[in-house]
Amino acid sequence: MKLQEITLGAATTTSALIAGLFFAYTFSVNLGLHKSDDKTYLIAMQNINREILNPAFYSCFLGAPLLLIVSSVLYFDLSSPKFYLILTACISYIVGVFIITAAKNVPLNNQLNSFDLAKASSEAIYRMRLRIEDPWVFWNNIRTVFSIITLVCLIISLIFFKSKG
User: Fold this and answer.
1) Where are the beta strands (DSSP E) in the chain?
2) Residue 139 C-beta-side C-alpha neighbours within 13 Å
3) Nearest one of 22, 4, 18, 2 to 137, comparing CA atoms
4) How far is Cα 94 from Cα 82, in angstroms, rounded to an integer?
């Protein structure tokens, strides 16, 4: 097995784990939290946002774009459909997952993290939920779509375009 195959396998695995995370949020976590009262929703989101910042998450979330970039370089061949699939996956992840997370979801997470629920009135809690929930869910749904595009491109590249021996 070549370095490029190992790298692409690792890129696919980390991308799949992140796609699964966002998929789970879109189709279960966000739907369940939406049914919570305002204070419970904000407490849960604060706790989730704090707990997700761990080595397992970071290794996948940050590892995927690095491995995708390396895979794009290792498979560079302008005449190869496999290269274009990997490059598309790389761009999809960097723009649709990494940049959207940094530009949209993280600022909302930070805003929520700095909100002191213990001192907030019911009205302030209500306003904070209105400010956070819909935009956060919207941008998470966009990340879900792009992470799935990333994964599909990688899977197609692995199944239909074998590496040259």
Assistant:
1) none
2) 18
3) 22
4) 18
